[in-house]
Amino acid sequence: MFCSTILTPHALIHLHLLPSLQAPAPRKILRTGAVNSASGSAYAEFGNTKVIVSVFGPRESKKAMMYSDVGRLNCNVSYTTFATPVRGQGSDSKEFSSILHKALEGAIILDSFPKTTVDVFALVLESGGSDLPVVISCASLALADAGIMMYDLVASVSVLKIGLGLPFGLGYAFQSLEARQFWIPEVSSVVHGVSGEEESYQDGSLMITCMHLLVMRITQLTITGEWSTPKIHEAMELCLDACSKLGKIMRLCLKETASASQE
Amino acid sequence: MVGLSVGEKHFIQGGIAQDLRSDGRKRLTYRPISVETGIIPQANGSARVKLGATDVIASVKAELGKPSPFQPDRGKVAIYVDCSPTAAPIFEGRGGEELSAELSAALQRSLLGGKSGTGAGIDLSSLSIVEGKICWDLYIDGLVVSSDGNLLDALGAAIKAALSNTGIPKVNVAASASSDEQPEVDISDEEYLQFDTSGVPVIVTLTKVGRHYIVDATSEEESQMSSALSVSINRLGRICGLTKRGGAGLDPSVILDMTSVAKHVSEQLLNNLESEISAAEACEEES
Amino acid sequence: MSSTNTSSDLSSEMEVDAFRRLFPLRFHERHLLESIRPDARPLGKARDTSLALGAVASAHGSALAKIGCTTMLAAIKMEVMTPTTESPDEGCIVIDFHMPPICSPIVRPGRPAEAAPVVSKQLSDTILSSGMIDLKELSLVSGKAAWMAYLDIYCLDADGALFDAALLSAVAAFSHLEIPVVSLNDDGRVVVVSEEDAGKLEKEAVNKEKRKLKLSTISFSLTCILHKNYILADPTAEEESIMETLMTVVLDSSFQLVSLYKPGGPVLACTSAIQDCVALTRQRVKELQKILNEAISDMEVD
Fold first, then answer.
1. ipTM
2. By CB neighbour count within 10 A (0-12 exposed, 13-18 middle, 19+ buried), where does C215 fall?
């Protein structure tokens, strides 16, 4: 359906991090070069979450900006009116824009484009949960596609914590092995089919954005809800593991695009 | 921002490396905290917190509202922070907007828990009056009067103090027969319920300068930071929210180390803050 | 015309890309002389077009249309509303065209693109006035409830001929649209029945099952550039920026003229040019009808 036109078959990458317990793993697609008129772009589809990121620049900074000997990064995340089940206003998300900025700026070599600005614009076509991590990972692919110098790609992953009595009755989701398997696919998208709804039941969430080439470097971390220290350790480990897997897949995606363009 | 010469920068960094900061503090020592409560008579609760030259005010206003259909048994809380243009030259015009939004988001993350509302520092179920019909809406407003670094910790402390100063009027619900109609309520003028703030966390921001991290950084020190981690921790030592600032990447083990240091510091801060709050309230009652 | 002379002298020595940037008009005109365009198309040929229905799961009807690189995503959401007193047995369609900053380097956040409201108006004029959709079909209970269809079209990649792609995606979204099942609840209010409940709750389903909207006629369009004596069908963004006179013809499925739009421009079109454009559009409508039918049958197979 959607993929058959916007995606070319050779670039389709299905990531199966682990077989899930209850339903087939949601479809996951990453592809660069979705928007032709941008310097670089990427499309990501994780379950029902569908995101397009375009990168423009480096181009002239706004006239009002002062001289700067390092480059500027400008981020914007917006939603379509039909992204959410209830028709929204299609507004910009200021909070997401600022988190995206913080997650990316540590990875980009800003010295490489002094006096100019790189614009990173994201549009969430459909919100199916885990929107922000998908936007961040997709944006880093788009930056790579645009040829912006970076220390490394950043991958972003979030986990939710769900208490007792909620949809799956798993208790603290990280405690059992069963839960662990359940959460891994969840890590990079949101639970099988239930998706967005799931997020409203969460007791807490943890989102990590990191680079993962030689050493792990966390560029952005946010936690909500009440957590004990061991739980944080466990959740972070889970996320970092998923981040490095996601990072490998992102690398593969870039390599495939590069080899396809050479042919 | 603060304009510093190379020498000054070097002095600040060197001092932090030797565990003796330019104002004589150690790396993990807070500036003296002063708390004043009940400073805004119209609000249900208010407090002013001074942390060195950083000066913030928090106020709590309670209004009757309708709970959201997804969480009929809980009240709602809105947190909004404003940076006064008098606090720093960069806040003039629209300059403070971005910082205000960032602080508001960080405070919401720290105090309101997950989306289901569990694990929130503010007990939202205590704000419910009639399930699905009426609840209290708390409007928490923060104002930065003067800025000398570490705004988030100061705002967190001010909100905690303002909440413990908050009295919510007692509400009598008239027993109405129909399930569809909005029940009639009677707000008492005399009886107030004290708001339980034992679960409200404190926020500890660790600022990383060079290889070391410091608490309660002044704005001069903040200008030298590579990244900062704000952790909110409650009485039980549990982490209720975490926000990272600054672009530089951190090693996962450093983050875990920082959270455990923050936890350690938070105990002292909580004790210190709670004794200051009770002293301030005693002072208010006397006057 | 000294500059023209220099450029023609230079053109033999310069690299093609540099020539294209420095003398865009000459670059294109040299192609036109050979009756070919820089992307190897003949003048009257439109770019490859593809269509996918049901691209957005959260909408009641949706479609993704691609003409060359120009990409449009259209989605329809249905909501129940109370009809106006003037037309108690009619529903309502609200059409919005968006150009988010991702689609083109000229659009920045907070500053909407100039083209967006123009295309938006053209679209609603075309769709609402052509009688493509009978608004009476959107009525549920006369005077009480009717459907409000929100059609939002997002431009994901802007590379010329925006209106053509937007209209194609809109038409495709309407042919994919499934009107949800609704029933009357105890208060006499109309509620949307969710899929799980549909089996057991057979109270008073106003419409028994999901149904398709009947489209009485389907219109398609073709935008052409008029430059000197040439007519270029389906221009790219580059061509649109260099040669400014555009003409858009909208024909319905029986090739009757729905709308003709020529917003000024330095080239004054003569009757024969208009007739040529209409003839090209006729060809294009046949192509697009085939593409739409294929997309619909593809979806039914799935």
1. 0.83
2. middle
